[in-house]
Design brief:
about 300 residues; alpha/beta; 3 domains; two-stranded antiparallel ribbon; 10 helices; about 35% helix; elongated
Length: about 300
């Protein structure tokens, strides 16, 4: 308005500033772009190329907690919007259920595991299966196997390998697939003292932890590429599982990463300790985690 008055009425800067009640330094102020903005934009572009399904929240947490940059969340959000990297939020469809079943929530690691299958196709049309196992308490991917055929014997072998390095669970939650209701698997869990918790048919929400993990697998990498052979799928699955456990922030646990040392794990007892030393997931180390929650960003001391 001051500039418009100067142009139309031919008055000086001092008079125009007095008329509109602003200082001359405010009138002459020119915004100076920070040199870090180019670096922020470069990191956002690289992360977008690497993980196309990530949004601002995961980008900011990765740069803050993993890379150690001290950039303010408002600056990262502003540059993210300027680059038009924001994702479209799809509206959720709410289904009305007469009697929704409550989801069993575990209270510690190795209390409840969830396992499930996924299917996809290679370029030549052959269908392959993806077997996944997660720890429901920590939301950590602890096993992922890919093959054309995964019968109950392969499921048992994969579970034995997982138990050999992270301990034995109390309960394994699964659906009513033929591999899970087979006599071989039921005899094996009975011998090992592991409980099988079957969900009700047609109620996948009772196994919500692994269903959410399935969506993440499908959306972040499985449906984004054309696969030539099975070896590439297995290799990519292994690399992605490591990145999921070490780089991806977990919104359900104050934006900690699945592989982080959690300070409250000393209050949690596991059902079995691995033979070779202590489970690395149960180490105790208190730290401050810079977390993003909605529009609030704060330093959360983890004392609870």
């Amino acid at each position: 308005m001051a500039q418009k008055a100067m142009t139309q009425r031919g008055i000086c800067i001092r008079v125009a500033c007095q008329a509109f009640g602003i200082s001359q330094s405010c009138y002459r102020y020119e915004r100076k772009l920070d040199a870090d903005n180019a670096e922020v934009a470069s990191w956002l572009m690289r992360l977008t190329e690497k993980d196309r399904s990530w949004g601002f929240g995961l980008f900011f947490l990765y740069l803050r907690n993993i890379k150690g940059f001290r950039w303010n969340h408002k600056r990262v959000s502003r540059i993210d919007k300027d680059l038009e990297l924001n994702l479209r939020i799809k509206p959720r469809k709410r289904l009305v259920r007469e009697k929704p079943e409550a989801l069993t929530v575990p209270g510690g690691i190795n209390q409840v595991w969830s396992m499930d299958f996924m299917h996809d196709q290679l370029e030549d049309g052959r269908t392959f299966r993806l077997f996944k196992v997660i720890d429901d308490f920590k939301r950590e991917a602890i096993g992922m196997e890919v093959d054309f055929s995964l019968p109950s014997e392969r499921v048992i072998r994969e579970l034995k390998e997982i138990i050999s390095w992270c301990g034995k669970p109390q309960v394994i939650r699964c659906d009513n697939g033929p591999e899970y209701i087979s006599a071989a698997l039921q005899n094996w869990v009975s011998e090992w003292g592991i409980g099988l918790e079957y969900i009700q048919p047609g109620n996948p929400q009772q196994n919500a932890y692994v269903e959410w993990f399935n969506m993440t697998v499908r959306y972040e990498w499985l449906s984004q590429y054309c696969w030539h052979d099975l070896a590439k799928v297995q290799d990519f699955a292994t690399q992605w599982m490591w990145s999921y456990n070490h780089d991806r922030a977990n919104m359900a646990w104050a934006n900690l990463h699945q592989s982080s040392d959690w300070p409250w794990l000393h209050n949690v007892s596991t059902s079995e300790t691995p033979a070779k030393g202590e489970d690395s997931r149960s180490k105790i180390k208190c730290k401050n985690i810079y977390s993003f929650s909605g529009y609030k960003v704060l330093i959360r001391p983890l004392f609870w």
